[in-house]
């Protein structure tokens, strides 16, 4: 594992703090006239999801967390349980809890390939998160009808996707359409063919 200096602790880096893995969400190196520079960060604990602030001074270092990625195939969800398998061997099934999946659960469709984030410590592996494809295509299950005249004002309407997720789309989207959604932001991207 690499050691990071205080100014190398940046967003999308994984570090160990008191033996627990954290993902850096934001960082800002502040340099004041009389004080030494310091890096003020917001970081998320990858084991419990809590976001906390942190400060690293010029003399501080942090150990980079050993996080690896492995592809997994989403099989199904049942009563809050999310089941995945090895894409090459469907008999190797495992469960990932809803807490670990987080908001991404509303975009999971059967047979979707995801990347699992795995934290390795003391020769043990623990799944600490998943990464969905950035753009995914969904079928629109429910969409309110367009009322003549309301398209001039711009805006959009709330539609329900096949997974149950609700997103705002332009007024011309109707039930039965396929649309592409950005799973990072939860925003409509385009209509699919």
CATH architecture of the largest domain: Beta Barrel
Roughly how much helix do the residues carry, as a percent range? under 10%
Average pLDDT number: 87
Spatial extent as radius of gyration = 21 Å
User: Per DSSP, what share of the residues sits in E-state strands of 2 or more residues?
Assistant: over 45%
Tally of separate domains? 3
Low-confidence stretches: none
Distance between the termini: 46 Å
Secondary structure: number of strands: 16
Strand order of the largest sheet: 1-6-2-3-4-5
Give the structural class.
Answer: mainly beta
CATH level-four homologous superfamily name of the largest domain: Nucleic acid-binding proteins
By CATH reckoning, the class of the largest domain would read Mainly Beta
Helix-strand sequence: EEEEEEEEEHEEEEEEE
CATH topology of the largest domain: OB fold (Dihydrolipoamide Acetyltransferase, E2P)
**Shape call:** flat
Number of helices: 1
Descriptive report:
The protein is mainly β. It has 3 domains: 3-64, SH3 type barrels (Roll); 67-131, Nucleic acid-binding proteins (OB fold (Dihydrolipoamide Acetyltransferase, E2P)); 135-191, Nucleic acid-binding proteins (OB fold (Dihydrolipoamide Acetyltransferase, E2P)), CATH 2.40.50.140. The protein contains 1 helix and 16 strands. The chain has a 6-stranded antiparallel β-sheet with strand order 1-6-2-3-4-5, with no helix packed on it. Strands 9-8-7-10-11 form a 5-stranded antiparallel β-sheet. It starts with a strand and ends with a strand. The model has no long low-confidence stretch (mean pLDDT 87).
